[in-house]
């Protein structure tokens, strides 16, 4: 039986411009890519592999938790400098 899981992914850019992507609900689940598309594809592959280790030791697959604070959201402002 297949179940659908929905996860939030977080992108950060390192000093070399590489996008590091992680899944807060899945500790240790990280990947990277040079573009958003590549990073997203890579993290999807990592997410697909993540449950294998959990199931081997009898643990449940984590679900996304309810939205907690603080929530971050980028905004754009114009500053007179």
Give me the secondary-structure category.
Answer: alpha+beta
Oligomer: single chain
Mean of residue pLDDT values:
85
Q: Which percent range fits the helix content? A: 25-40%
**CATH class category name of the domain at 10-56:** Alpha Beta
Any idea what the shape is?
A: elongated
The CATH topology of the domain at 10-56, please?
A: Double Stranded RNA Binding Domain
Q: How many extended strands?
A: 3
**SSE order, one letter for each helix or strand:** EEEH
Number of helical regions: 1
Low-confidence stretches: none
Structure write-up:
- It is a single chain.
- This protein is α+β, with helices and mostly antiparallel strands.
- It has a domain at 10-56: Double Stranded RNA Binding Domain.
- The protein contains one helix and three strands.
- It has one helix at residues 36-56; strands at residues 10-13, 19-22, 30-33.
- It has a three-stranded antiparallel beta sheet with strand order 1-2-3, covered by helices on one side.
- A hairpin with a 5-residue loop joins strand 1 and strand 2 (19-22).
- It is elongated and about 55 Å long.
- The N and C termini lie far apart (59 Å).
- The mean pLDDT is 85.
Topology:
Layout: E1 10-13, E2 19-22, E3 30-33, H1 36-56
Antiparallel strand pairs: 1-2, 2-3
Quickly describe the structure:
The protein is built from one helix and three strands.
Descriptors for this entry?
81 residues; alpha+beta; Double Stranded RNA Binding Domain; three-stranded antiparallel sheet; 1 helix; 3 strands; 26% helix; 15% strand; elongated
């Amino acid at each position: 039986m297949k179940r659908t899981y929905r996860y939030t992914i977080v992108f950060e850019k390192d000093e070399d411009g590489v996008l590091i992507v992680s899944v807060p609900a899945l500790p240790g689940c990280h990947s990277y890519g040079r573009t958003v598309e590549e990073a997203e594809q890579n993290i999807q592959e990592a997410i697909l592999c993540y449950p294998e280790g959990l199931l081997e030791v009898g643990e449940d697959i984590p679900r996304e938790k309810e939205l907690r604070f603080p929530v971050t959201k980028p905004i754009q402002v114009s500053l007179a400098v």
